Amino acid sequence: MTQFANYINGEWLQGAAVTRNINPSDLSDLVGEYAQADAKQADIAISAAHQAFPAWSTGSIQARSDALDKIGNEILARKEELGQLLSREEGKTLPEGIGEAARAGNIFKFFAAEVLRIQGQKLASVRPGMDVEITREPLGVIGIIAPWNFPLAIPAWKIAPALAYGNTVVFKPADLVPGSGWAIAEIISRSGIPSGVFNLVMGRGSVVGQRFIEDRRVSGISFTGSVATGNRVAQGCITRMAKFQLEMGGKNPMVVLNDADLNVAVSAAVQGAFFSTGQRCTASSRIIVEKGIYPRFIEAARAQLEAVRVGHALQKESQIGPVVDQSQLDQNQSYVAIGKDEGAKLVIGGERLQRDTEGFYMAPALFADCNNDMRISREEIFGPVAAVIPADNYEHALQLANDTEFGLSSGICTTSLKYATHFKRHAQAGMVMVNTATAGVDYHVPFGGRKGSSYGAREQGAYAAEFYTTVKTAYTAA
């Protein structure tokens, strides 16, 4: 099998080692063998990006726009193929994989247009005979460290704005899913972007990511991943005063009030908590239900989960695919055991499932009669495990929803405009959903959270300029 190489300074280079990319739906299916860079190769990529920055950052904005539009068009034209690759290596169902590929393509096209409307200001000075201009300029070399759960969309929403605003890029995809990152790089390599402007460096975070953190030529790092790794990125960047942007964990609440439409509430909670195998930082892992509707909600959720089909990601009948790997499966099942030990009631699921192909299949686990002090209610599990917590009334539900170190997404199901309006204002989260799942956002609006979930400027949409540019104020005497 051909080794998929790193892309550095316009060339495809073999790595110092190789990693095997295995399909979590079928452990006998080898997706491919992918290069692993060492620290030396990471340094070469950073050097290439550093050298390419002056010309790219001051060059034609039309050329930037055209390149990003070409990338977006190709991704959209190949969304079924790319979606299948994503589903094969990560485990999302095929419709989810195709949808993510389409989102990635639309992100590149959005930023192709944003290139042409980078804004500044011209202001009158308080001093006579003086003009003031405020402009945005690119940072420099951007190190991008992406996670495994959205291997097309998240790299897209980091790479596209970085390039759009005139930065150069060194990109490290997650070790578990190099195929999607490589596919994006291969498309970018044919877009007309000059050598060195974009570089793909596959490899271990402890090696490649660490070089991004340490190298003073890397002006900023955009990271999505675990809280622990995010903290290390922050500490390293602060040491040398580099700019950084962190998207980390979530323990997102979905509040269900007595007046909610039961069908809407159950569908929103099940979709938010368990689809994409619960492997979303925006998943509804805490479901806070007012006591008047609590018994009916538990029974309806149990019935809906009983009918959910867990299976091979590429099979049409599958609604939920496998867990991404053995380590994640072990962690998920350890939390099922923890929940039982803590006294929570396991309503359904939690066991490993056998299918026609050997894979990391797990039945979605729903716990009832939880409280907000349990580990399954406080710690991010990142799998198909959700805790249902009873609430006395709306005020109690809001207090429980906000009682977390995280603050990414928060949701409420209610038919009351009063409570919906109050919740949107008082939920301590970066994103709030009413009568819909906590997971799932548009590609043209800001994404990000509060507290331990996020640090730095928002991602996506026009707000991406806050991270990928620096502001300059210039004075001219008449």
From TrEMBL:
Record's protein name: Aldehyde dehydrogenase family protein
Active site: E247
Keywords: Oxidoreductase
Domain Aldehyde dehydrogenase, first and last residues per copy: 19-473
Species this chain originates from: Herbaspirillum lusitanum
InterPro entries listed in its UniProt record: Ald_DH/histidinol_DH, Ald_DH_C, Ald_DH_CS_CYS, Ald_DH_CS_GLU, Ald_DH_N, Aldehyde_DH_dom
Assigned protein family: Belongs to the aldehyde dehydrogenase family.
Superkingdom of origin: Bacteria
PANTHER family, per the entry: ALDEHYDE DEHYDROGENASE-RELATED
